[in-house]
Amino acid sequence: QAQLVESGGGSVQAGGSLRLSCVASYSGIFNAYRVAWFRQAPGKEREGVAAIFVGSTYYNDSVKGRFTISLDTDKNTMYLQMNNLQLEDTAVYYCAARSTWGGEIWYRESEYNYWGQGTQVAVSS
Which of 80, 117, 114, 77 has the alpha carbon at shortest distance from 99? Predict the structure, then answer.
């Protein structure tokens, strides 16, 4: 049974926008306020994109000023608003959550114990 389910991916032209959503199957997953979006482009390793982690918000330098991460615990949903999408943003995007306190490095995959199945984002020129 999936614990995190992403949606909102798709195809968009460069300069366009998408909003990804990630719904948790139960409220406890987001209670520690440690959530993140990762992505994996073809032929590349998975990388951290953005996170709400230990009281702060973090972004990969490549998406600063274009992407915004948010968390709505009432709806058990996290979001990634992506504006001014570029060709290099093409990837499978994954949401991740840590359901316990602690953790040190937001972009380290091992910090998270829940993962979604991924949603494809394709940006074309």
Answer: 114
Dihedral sign (CA 98, 74, 39, 3)? positive
In this prediction, residues 23-48 reach a mean pLDDT of 92
Which two structure tokens, joined as six digits, stand for 104? 């040190």
Cα–Cα distance, 16 to 13 (Å, whole number): 6
Ramachandran class of 98: left when φ > 0, alpha when ψ lies in -120 to 50, beta otherwise: beta
Give the DSSP per-residue string, 74-100: TTTEEEEEE-S--GGG-EEEEEEE--S
50-60 pLDDT, tens digit each: 999 878 999 99
Print burial letters for 3-37: b (CB count within 10 Å at least 16), e (below 16). ebebebbeebeeeeebebbbbbeeeebbebebbbb
Number of H-type helices and E-type strands within the chain:
0, 11
pLDDT in tens, 86-100: 999 999 999 999 988
Interatomic CA distance for residues 28 and 24, integer angstroms: 9
Asked if residues 84 and 66 have their Cβ atoms less than 8 Å apart, the reply is: yes
